[in-house]
Write a structure and sequence with these properties.
Largest sheet of chain A: none
Structural class of chain A: mainly alpha
Number of helices of chain A: 6
Distance between the termini of chain A: 20 Å
Number of domains of chain A: 1
Structural class of chain B: mainly alpha
Oligomer: heterodimer
Largest interface: A-B, 19 and 15 residues
Low-confidence stretches of chain B: none
Number of helices of chain B: 3
Helix content of chain A: over 70%
Mean pLDDT of chain A: 81
Mean pLDDT of chain B: 90
Order of helices and strands of chain B: HHH
Distance between the termini of chain B: 43 Å
């Protein structure tokens, strides 16, 4: 396939097999990433690994459909909003623990968040919230790094033309 | 822990690492680093550290390889003498 077609994603000679397989694979990769994030407390995995797997699904999308289409689907300002959201979720759960432990300064001691009546269930739910925050941030940052690496090349080629 | 498997894996890891720094084709070097990360993940599993293996397989063999290929697309493929 010619290089320009692959970069712009508008050429007529795109590979049907690559597009179909990646269109089928991307939702399953993302579902597996969510499974890894949620199961991080009790087994191997966690927010970081799940976030990386989620970001690799966007890498697959960029490889199959080109950076222009992927950039329209997942723009840079959404990226910035997402990685701020993850950090705020992490820090917010920690500060909520400080507030709910009534001044005992139990930062990120999840048991004090009154989500349920049991201390251990509160701890599990708070751990999941923190893992989701880590996952969102890692996913957005790694996607942003990859998109920026690919965008720069695109812009340079556009400037030379 | 099977020490024969450990020995074979560590020997392969060292061989691939030496190959990755001596090869002149940078795309081959990136692929060798990907194989290095994957074999390191197998070594971590063999050492019963599944969490580290998971991170190594996701970051080392997945994300870093994509980053390095995206960076290689902006430079020359062959290393200068």
């Amino acid at each position: 396939m010619p290089r320009e077609d692959r970069d712009t994603g508008k050429g007529k000679s795109r590979s049907v097999v690559v597009e179909t397989v990646s269109r089928l694979m991307v939702p399953f990769i993302q579902l597996f990433a969510l499974y890894v994030i949620i199961h991080g407390a009790g087994g191997p995995g966690g927010g970081f690994q799940g976030g990386v797997i989620f970001a690799s699904s966007f890498v697959l999308y960029v490889i199959a459909f080109g950076i222009v289409k992927a950039g329209n689907r997942f723009p840079e300002h959404a990226n910035i909003a997402l990685f701020s959201t993850g950090v705020y979720l992490y820090a917010g759960v920690g500060l909520l623990c400080v507030i709910c432990s009534l001044g005992a300064a139990q930062y990120l001691n999840y048991g004090f968040i009154p989500l349920t009546h049991h201390f251990e269930e509160n701890r599990a739910l708070g751990m999941d919230l923190v893992e989701i925050g880590i996952g969102i941030t890692v996913m957005a940052v790694i996607t942003s790094i990859f998109f920026n690496l690919v965008w720069k090349r695109e812009e340079i080629e556009k400037g030379e033309d | 822990m099977i020490w024969q498997l450990d020995l074979a894996l560590l020997f392969l890891v060292v061989a691939i690492a030496i190959a990755a720094i001596t090869v002149r084709d940078l795309l081959s070097a990136i692929m060798l680093l990907c194989a290095y990360s994957f074999l390191m993940a197998v070594v971590w599993v063999e050492m019963h550290s599944v969490d580290v293996a998971f991170t190594e397989a996701a970051v080392g063999a997945g994300a870093t390889t994509a980053f390095l290929i995206a960076a290689l697309a902006r430079t020359a493929r062959w290393e200068k003498k």
